[in-house]
Amino acid sequence: MNDRYAFACALARKAGVLALDFWNRREQLVVELKGPGDFVSVADREVEQLVRAELAAAFPDDRFLGEETAAGFAGTFDRCWIVDPIDGTHNFLRGIPYWNVAIAYVEKSRAEIGVVFDPSQDELFHAERGGGAWRESRSGTVALHTASTSALDGAYIAFGHHDRSPEYRYLEIRRRMMDTGIAMRNFGSAALQLAHVAAGRLDGFIELELSIWDAIGGLLLVEEAGGYTAPFVPARATEKVPCLACAPGIAAALVELTKV
Length: 260
What we know:
The chain is of the alpha+beta class. The protein is built from 8 helices and 12 strands. The chain has a 7-stranded mixed β-sheet with strand order 1-2-3-4-5-6-7, with helices on both faces. Strands 9-8-10-12-11 form a 5-stranded mixed β-sheet, sandwiched between helices. Helix 1 packs antiparallel against helix 3, helix 2 packs across helix 3 and helix 6 runs parallel beside helix 7. It is globular. The chain starts with a helix and ends with a helix.
């Protein structure tokens, strides 16, 4: 496992360099690739292809599930790499520096390694089950710890959602959060928001429909940083399920608040 852990950290950085190059050239490439949709698709695909090829060469017997190829995945999440090449594509497209490369290694549907790399800030968040969670940056490496927050009133919680259609459950939870005095945010990148829960920058993260590649590595970061995570086990590669992670002191109250 140590070999996979070190490899995943190095690979996330390598993939992040490629993604950052696309991001830095986005205005030129949007024109060259005939529109923003093509630009994001090409960037996603090329970063995923890089990650997949590197993993296949290093660990040829491991399985691979990536966002761009998830529709063709069959079987169980065992001895499997799960990858989101660019998490936060709307931010990525619009030049907002809140997106990441997410890589996880899973055995028997449980993450053993989780890596989230934020290229624009040069921050690498990583964890191995049982080994704690860590952040590497220009200033060095530090252990991650979730926040000591013990009450929902005044808590700083990210509430992720899509904007394609009205959803009663989101509106009801937002109402409850406002009534409780929670400061709500949605930064548009699930894995990075989970990493920031692990780092204590956010007190919690909630999303009612989330894909496995968006969440499973970030949830390990929160667990290894001492936080609470709700069960998260999609039955299929393309299934979206609820995701909740937070500081331990607000776990019971936040779980109750989200019951709709």
